[in-house]
Specification:
ribosomal large subunit binding, ibrinogen binding protein from staphylococcus aureus fold, about 575 residues, Helix Hairpins, RqcH_bacterial, 23 strands, seven-stranded antiparallel β-sheet, alpha+beta, five-stranded antiparallel β-sheet
């Protein structure tokens, strides 16, 4: 977790500079864990986010806006009643613990000056936001806990007390003798020894301390080694906490945020990074991208579930129809029974038996055959019954074959979306897939304004664009709507169209500009077609290619579905990644 006590101490200094002597102008609570305070100071309004989210507790200033509920939650109303118009007069940290106290000066109903506090405990799933009075009596908290729920109840009227788990030593105040005692008879790693015994220190910071102390040996019994770790700890804390020498740094991996810290960590030297002049800006970008990524993952998981459920349902329906076709094989037997009963009717007598034995005119030796009968029906009625069974099974077979054809089209559509979903990298890609699923009835249509918003988002999404080693433009559809657009509207008749053979995937277009396309460009385009398909990372993937003029879309077919002829096939091994391809941003 990047937000440790060291980060909080550096953030506190920025918050004091930005917010102290400011006036509380507005208060919102966009969700059950988060409070937004709008503080007006020197002609500017700053938005302070305080979030007790169990997985992402945080606090920082941001200019980004969120939609607030029409009806404010109860805790928000209590904050407004007590703090609207109040002056923020101080911000304090409990040692190096992840506890911050914000002091407000406000007026009572009688006009007397009063002091109230927001106390923010940033402690993972136990994170909480308190509003307390000058005597530290709890006015309310964003998360209440009863006497039955916790040994430390959190309810209005109870006096606030620090969490009972705060037993670690303040690293700024710890002496060398105390520090050395942590290492006695301990089999833990030096990083764990630091985090287990010192407050406000994250695993990242502990790793940095050990790395800067140049401690690589496993044994930590040597006093000189422990002293190097102690000196490294004290030097880092002095530079960051006392002198305020910080360089806020954000670390990424494959475009996703990994971590941030108040200094450039040597233990993250292999990661791409971005420096900030302001810690709030760094934290803001980290959590904004973190939330974006979380939303992206949740949306992708939701769409994957929708697609998988529908594929499963269609597969079951497919098997049911196959069974119907298998059952229809008996239809000819029933017709034969009906024919033989009528053919032998002139020489048969009505019987009480549950069968009748007749000459089988369909056999070469004209042998006899026993035909089951229903006793409550005469021979002619039994013949009619067999004809009805025959007609019923033949109709069921005809219907099942039509159903199977439709199911196969639907499965192809869903599998193409599944392949596109695997390659989706931006939320706009997911929104377009969601829109396709809505249009085809797999997801209930959202409100019109939500749909309009999606369309606006989708307009931002563009096909992947690559330049081949021979200088030809290659375009790859991100979704089925783009596939249709690329093939049917964007490409000219003499451009080359590529697609994995009988494998769901993206449409790929090579812009020929009426020039002959070299084999190297064809291979590169085929590699992209295989990568952006269900055959990703497979070997010997067949990729069909032809001129766009030979690609047609049958009427009333689903997005992305086309038929084509006059094609050739190229076999490629799908690449592990496309880092070596020249992609146009």
């Amino acid at each position: 977790m990047p937000f440790d006590g060291v980060v909080l101490s550096a953030l506190k200094k920025e918050l004091i500079s930005e917010l102290v002597d400011g006036k509380v102008e507005r208060i919102y609570q966009p969700n059950q864990f988060e409070v937004n305070l709008y503080i007006y100071k020197l002609g500017k309004t700053k938005k302070l986010i305080i979030s007790a989210n169990p997985s992402l507790p945080r606090m920082y200033i941001t200019e980004r806006q969120k939609k607030n509920p029409e009806v404010a939650p109860n805790f928000c109303m209590i904050l407004r009643k007590n703090l609207l118009g109040a002056r923020l007069i101080g911000i304090y940290q409990e040692g190096l613990e992840r506890i911050l106290k914000i002091e407000f000066e406000t007026k009572s109903e009688l006009g007397d000056t009063e002091v109230k506090y927001i106390i923010f405990e940033m402690m993972g799933r136990h994170s909480n936001i308190f509003l307390v009075d000058s005597n530290y009596k709890i006015i309310d908290a964003i998360k209440r806990l009863s006497f039955e729920d916790s040994p430390r109840p959190i309810l209005p009227g109870i006096k606030y007390s620090l969490p009972p788990v705060l037993t670690k030593k303040n690293p700024i105040e710890v002496s060398f003798d105390e520090f050395a005692s942590f290492f006695k008879s301990s089999n833990k790693s030096p990083e764990n020894i630091l985090t287990d015994n010192l407050s406000g220190i994250s695993k990242q910071f502990a790793n940095e301390v050990i790395l800067r102390a140049q401690v690589f040996e496993k044994s930590l019994e040597n006093a000189d080694t422990i002293k190097r770790i102690f000196d490294s700890l004290k030097e880092l804390l002095y530079c960051i906490v006392e002198k305020g020498e910080i360089l806020p740094t954000l670390y990424t991996e494959k475009g996703n945020v990994v971590d941030f810290y108040v200094i450039d960590l040597k233990c993250f030297s292999s990661f791409p990074k971005k420096h900030f002049s302001n810690l709030n800006l760094c934290i803001d970008e980290y959590y904004f991208k973190k939330e974006q990524y979380t939303v992206f993952i949740e949306k992708r998981q939701y769409l994957q579930k929708v697609i998988e459920q529908n594929i499963k349902k269609l597969s079951q329906k497919y098997e049911h129809n196959i069974q119907k076709i298998q059952e229809a094989k008996n239809a000819e037997v029933y017709k034969k029974y009906g024919d033989l009963i009528l053919a032998n009717l002139y020489q048969l007598r009505e019987t009480n038996e549950d069968f009748v034995e007749v000459i089988d005119y369909y056999s070469e030796d004209l042998s006899t055959i026993k035909i089951p009968l229903e006793k409550d029906k005469d021979l002619k009625q039994n013949a009619e019954r067999y004809y009805k069974l025959y007609n019923k099974l033949k109709k069921a077979e005809e219907y099942a074959k039509a159903e199977i054809a439709e199911i196969e089209r639907e499965l192809e559509f869903l599998q193409s979306l599944e392949a596109l979903l695997e390659k989706s990298q931006e939320i706009e890609d997911l929104l377009s897939i969601e829109e396709e699923l809505e249009k085809e009835g797999y997801i209930k249509t959202q409100a019109e304004n939500a749909g309009q918003q999606k369309k606006k988002e989708n307009q931002k999404s563009k096909p992947h664009h690559f330049i081949s080693s021979d200088g030809f433009d290659i375009y790859v559809g991100r979704n089925n709507l783009q596939n249709d657009f690329l093939t049917l509207r964007f490409a000219s008749s003499h451009d080359i169209w590529l697609h994995t053979q009988k494998i769901p995937g993206s449409h790929v277009i090579i812009r020929t500009n009426n020039k002959e396309v070299p084999q190297t460009t064809l291979i590169e385009a085929a590699l992209l077609a295989s990568y952006f398909s269900k055959a990703k990372h497979s070997t010997k993937v067949p990729v069909d290619y032809t001129f766009v003029k030979y690609v047609k879309k049958p009427p009333k077919t689903k997005p992305g579905f086309v038929i084509y002829d006059n094609f050739k096939t190229i076999i490629v091994d799908s690449p592990e990644n496309i880092d070596n391809f020249n992609k146009v941003e």
